[in-house]
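From the methods appendix. Each design record in this collection lists the tokenized structure first, followed by the designed amino acid sequence. Records were kept in a plain field format so they could be parsed without special tools. The example shown here is representative of the layout used throughout.

RECORD:
FOLD TOKENS (540 positions):
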């Protein structure tokens, strides 16, 4: 019997997403034109934001690009914004797009060195608390200079590799045989208790490492995509960004590391699993065999990757070029000196980043709607009507709350662009600036100009007002950046590294569900978010 065309369409539309999800998206697409015609573009714009956040929150059901992209495309067709405005938003954030394309791909070619580092920590260190702290610290340090997703991918690859080896051993299966890692049916009875401990141990380490990527990612210009976005709007290079954010990021880093030790010491929130001695010995033997197999060629690769890593850190610190172009230099150096010369070998490096790059342009489409319809003007005006430290705390809290249910890049994009627009209007009201507020803002946030030099061209009384205005804008930018980064560890929706871990092949193997991840993240969420809020209040 022939399948009706309508049923075929229902099956192919959004693929394997649940039926209810497909109906909700179709409902959104039908509702939006009705709202435009009945209550106008302002209400329809807010409905679009809510719908788009829904697609981000439901990322585990369907990657947000197809569904969110349809909503953004419909908004452009209905005239809520124009293709030119979308293009302008993407062009303005071109450095972030370059970061995602080239830096993520560049770090892909450093995986051997990163995997070697985490393997050494796992099999050579005996104390669980020290291993946990080292995983968290290594994740933080690497994510401050590299891409958090790649660092997470490496940690996962180490865990998956060792779990695979031990699960086969516990099941009596050869390495060449097909084997189901999720099922324990074939595991020998004597090994079951050890396997449960090993699973819990790996869950703990994965979360410590993932939280570490958030702790380090908030600190630097390249740690997270939204950092570069905020830094680009403010005209901050690598060192200025670090120094501006440091009053908040350093206390949070210290408290995060203390939390790591505390949960392991007191065995709370699902932490405290130990690595059984038998498994440690087995993994150490396996790691030694793997290192021996690498030979001189493998050792040379590790040395080259470590040297290119040093080049990357130095190039970022001294801002020798745009971040994305530094990433491209890493690709060139690593492929040339490690013998990767075939196109298909290079292609794999770009697979991780390009879907998110496309999604980022969809973000910019929604941001274009927000600008065109001035949707955030009332909210920004209300928050900016608050005074002093209360205003900074409100910014931090609002960004944190939205980022924990949505995507932090989207939230940061909206807040920094809308806030900058507000401060352009503020500069317009200052007398004797000799140019428009937009022109002055462009000069004050130009990375190639010193603010003091720009202020020196203004009358003294005017310069004082402009300086005070820009210093306050700097503080709000830090509140936006730290707000989108720190409280977003609460759920997988807010942190790309968490979502990546949850949707990986490793998650079902170590029994890491959405609820369990939220529980494991909870102590970090509480301590880090409150520390960030207190630091914003006291130190900014």
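DESIGN:
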């Amino acid at each position: 019997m022939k399948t009706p065309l309508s049923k075929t369409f229902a099956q192919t539309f959004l693929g394997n997403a649940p039926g209810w999800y497909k109906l909700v998206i179709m409902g959104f697409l039908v509702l939006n034109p009705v709202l435009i015609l009945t209550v106008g573009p302002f209400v329809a714009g807010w409905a679009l934001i809510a719908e788009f956040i829904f697609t981000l929150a439901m990322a585990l059901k369907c990657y947000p690009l197809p569904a969110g992209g349809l909503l953004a495309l419909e908004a452009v067709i209905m005239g809520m914004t124009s293709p030119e405005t979308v293009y302008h938003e993407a062009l303005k954030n071109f450095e972030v797009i370059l970061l995602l394309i080239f830096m993520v791909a560049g770090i892909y070619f450093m995986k051997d060195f990163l995997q070697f580092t985490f393997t050494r920590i796992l099999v050579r260190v005996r104390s669980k608390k020290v291993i946990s702290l080292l995983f968290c610290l290594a994740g933080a340090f690497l994510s401050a200079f590299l891409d958090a997703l790649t660092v997470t991918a490496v940690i996962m690859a180490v865990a998956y590799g060792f779990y695979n080896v031990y699960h086969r051993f516990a099941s009596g299966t050869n390495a060449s045989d097909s084997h189901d890692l999720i099922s324990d049916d074939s595991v020998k009875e004597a090994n079951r208790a050890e396997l449960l401990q090993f699973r819990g141990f790996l869950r703990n380490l994965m979360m410590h490492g993932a939280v570490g990527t958030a702790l380090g990612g908030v600190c630097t210009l390249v740690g997270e995509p939204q950092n570069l976005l905020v830094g680009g709007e403010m005209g901050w290079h690598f060192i200025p960004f670090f120094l501006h954010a440091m009053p908040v990021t350093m206390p949070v880093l210290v408290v995060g590391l203390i939390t790591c030790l505390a949960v392991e010491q007191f065995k709370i929130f699902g932490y405290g699993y130990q690595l059984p001695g038998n498994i440690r010995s087995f993994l150490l033997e396996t790691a030694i065999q793997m290192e021996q197999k690498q030979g001189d060629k493998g050792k040379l690769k590790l040395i080259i990757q470590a040297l290119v890593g040093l080049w990357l850190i130095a190039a970022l610190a001294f801002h020798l070029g745009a971040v994305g172009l530094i990433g491209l230099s890493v690709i060139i150096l690593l492929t040339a000196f490690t013998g990767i010369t075939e196109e298909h070998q290079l292609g794999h490096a770009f697979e991780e980043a390009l879907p998110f790059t496309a999604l980022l342009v969809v973000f910019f489409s929604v941001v274009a709607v927000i600008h065109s319809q001035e949707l955030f003007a009332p909210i920004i005006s209300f928050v900016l009507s608050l005074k002093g430290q209360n205003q900074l705390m409100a910014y931090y809290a609002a960004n944190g709350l939205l980022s924990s249910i949505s995507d932090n890049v989207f939230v940061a994009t909206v807040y920094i662009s809308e806030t900058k627009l507000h401060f352009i209007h503020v500069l317009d009201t200052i007398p004797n600036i000799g140019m428009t507020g937009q022109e002055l803002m462009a000069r004050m946030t130009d990375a190639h100009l010193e603010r003091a030099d720009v202020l020196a061209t203004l009358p003294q009384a005017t310069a004082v007002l402009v300086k005070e205005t820009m210093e306050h804008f700097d503080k709000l930018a830090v509140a936006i950046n730290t707000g989108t980064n720190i409280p977003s560890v609460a759920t997988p929706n807010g942190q790309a590294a968490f979502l990546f871990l949850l949707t990986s092949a490793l998650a079902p193997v170590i029994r890491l569900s959405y609820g369990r991840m939220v529980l494991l993240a909870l102590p970090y969420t509480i301590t880090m978010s409150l520390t960030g809020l207190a630091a914003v209040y006291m130190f900014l």
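APPENDIX NOTE: Residues 143 and 213 are 5 Å apart (CA to CA).
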